[in-house]
Design brief:
The structure is a homodimer. By secondary structure, the first copy, chain A, is of the alpha/beta class. Chain A has two domains: 236 residues, 3-Layer(aba) Sandwich (Aldehyde Dehydrogenase, Chain A, domain 1); 149 residues, Aldehyde Dehydrogenase, Chain A, domain 2 (3-Layer(aba) Sandwich), CATH 3.40.309.10. The first copy, chain A, has a seven-stranded parallel sheet. Chain A has a four-stranded parallel sheet with strand order 5-4-3-6, with helices on both faces. Chain A has a three-stranded antiparallel sheet with strand order 1-2-16, with no helix packed on it. Chain A is globular and about 65 Å long. The model of chain A has no long low-confidence stretch (mean pLDDT 96). The interface between A and B is large, with 70 and 70 residues.
Amino acid sequence: MDIGKLMQEMGVRARRAARVLSGTPTGVKDRALEIVAAKLRDSAPILREENAKDIEAGRKEGLSPAMLDRLTLTDGRIEDMARSVEEIISLPDPVGEVTRIWNRPAGFRVGRMRVPIGVIGIIYESRPNVTIDAAALCLKSGNACILRGGSEAIHSNRALAAVFQEGVKGAGLPEDVAQVVPVTDRAAVRALLTMDEQVDLIIPRGGKPLIRMILENSTIPVIKHLDGVCHTYVDAGSDLEMAGQICLNAKLNRPGTCNAMETLLVHTGVAEGFLPGLLERMKEEGVQIRGCPATRKLAPWVQEATDEDWGTEYLDLILSVKVVADMDEAMDHIAEYGSAHTDVIITENHRHAERFVREVDSAAVMVNASSRLHDGFVFGLGAEIGISTDKLHARGPMGLEELTCQKFIVLGEGHLRE
Amino acid sequence: MDIGKLMQEMGVRARRAARVLSGTPTGVKDRALEIVAAKLRDSAPILREENAKDIEAGRKEGLSPAMLDRLTLTDGRIEDMARSVEEIISLPDPVGEVTRIWNRPAGFRVGRMRVPIGVIGIIYESRPNVTIDAAALCLKSGNACILRGGSEAIHSNRALAAVFQEGVKGAGLPEDVAQVVPVTDRAAVRALLTMDEQVDLIIPRGGKPLIRMILENSTIPVIKHLDGVCHTYVDAGSDLEMAGQICLNAKLNRPGTCNAMETLLVHTGVAEGFLPGLLERMKEEGVQIRGCPATRKLAPWVQEATDEDWGTEYLDLILSVKVVADMDEAMDHIAEYGSAHTDVIITENHRHAERFVREVDSAAVMVNASSRLHDGFVFGLGAEIGISTDKLHARGPMGLEELTCQKFIVLGEGHLRE
């Protein structure tokens, strides 16, 4: 099979479907999603059957129990997928919104209107629910998508795409609005990444090697999520009771997520009164602590932190701790070792809060709150296709609005350029 | 010389300067730009001297008279540069603006704040004034820049950068906020394009081969300007007097610019009453016409348009003309052959205006206006670093606001994730 040709044809079909979708009223898109949700529930037996093939192949290939778990579709998980589709129905459609319109002295008006981006390529690993979530978010925002899941989930993803396409056709829309790459060859990804005539945006969801490969090979814009090396800085004169609660939540609420705290920075003036008790508590909760020399003076049982620790996203019950002389040292540390994901200051000092918010250059900068709050739902933006650690177009949770772009509109009455 | 090392060092210095600049008040940035404007005027003799070296080398290399003209710095052009710097002083500083802030049910607030992008790499050809314009726009928006001009302008660009850096130092800012790559080796561009740790955005200004090379080699996001194949569609029942004025302006006002009309589409119902007179007038103005068969029936002297014509950006006194059955055919033609830059409908029909504005997917979509109006100044946005034909982050004129990104800010009082 000629993979390049297969991908090109998918691209051309996606581009055509995107044009139809861009002019489709919200009601029709929502109707399509309603049918998708219903069909997902009806198709649970077939979906589990196809999924079983992936599980069997995965077992033979020796996938880890955690990987196999992520891969597994149960009736409960299928119901969850149907519900997320229904949640997306309830979100406002961003397409067509005129965000601003202003008059020019010559008498014409200039405005900005939200329109779909066009065709979006999504490259992801393991969890089959991404197939439905991503396709539904793209549909609602008027974008066609080309989905390339992991080879370990190929049967599940093909079956999910078939259900999605049936739903879409049920509402009279072209099935090509959501296509799953039907082959597992690596060449398909390489082909996709250079189809800049057909594809407007690549969103990767996966580990660092995947993202590096995509950056190096894509001629299409990429919006990515890299590390979450998130810091909490406890300032002098802060409410230490509150600081402790926030630190425990930021580390323990879900240690495996990108917005969990990885490094705690503590002002030297409060270190003695704050750190020994908190670290003891963290230890009780099973957290391994790696500290700077000053931390180890206060809690001699703490392991020594290496330079590598400061830049590491543990995604685990590990925390690095550093005592700093002041807020400037904390901000310098964050600028040097952070990943510009989520950084927090705990302080009662208004000027410090202001400076930290202005000067720390991260997707989310917080005052007196847990870094775990960095999330599209928690922020009130609805479902997200991912969290961007890039600075362009989308920074932080990427929801329906971030799946659109804004064009200029000009309304004249015969206006000319002088 | 180790070019890779040289570029890395420039990147590290730029990153450091960007951090200083991101927290610099507007007044200090404006003061720096005032000193730059004054120093530009004072340095005219030296600038012309350095420029003369480029002109001489260009003559020896056999550059075309048009190229040599673009390269030349005169006292008038130096004064123009100083004035554009002063115009940038007068524009509002976007940095720090909180564009929205909202309450969440749990009691914390979430907002979005504009911050600089960071370090911007600008790769351009011939015109030395880009060095000053780009550096001034980046400075005002809080970004450090690495400027890589054409090798034919290296002496001029180095001299201009020296003047800019003197001005910046005069206001107490680090000179590394604007650095010109001091060597002409191609390897410097390749190195720049993969410095994704140090550089946040690449903006190329130049021909298609340059932009293709950049897309294929960059691991950094690129915002580019490709073609302007701009259409004007004259609808049935439109004001033909106004339509004629708009068409003449769109073609003749400055035919060499990206927003000039390249293709005229005319509804079959008005073609007979509209085209022969307009085309005669265009011919008088020296425009060569290439038409579809229906056009040639109405004006037999017109040359036949080939399929290649429809996709060509002439940037010259050439116009392709097609008679279409209706607005749908016009929109299909624009979708197939256009470059999504600027497309115009001339109509009195409200529904057609609405549909055209919604459905045509271009950076600027206009009703009853000349495509030449697509410009940052004309839109009221102030100076622009270029017009983006991309869809992500910036679409259309890219001014100070588009040189920033928005981070999330969260203001809590001990809020945790449930």
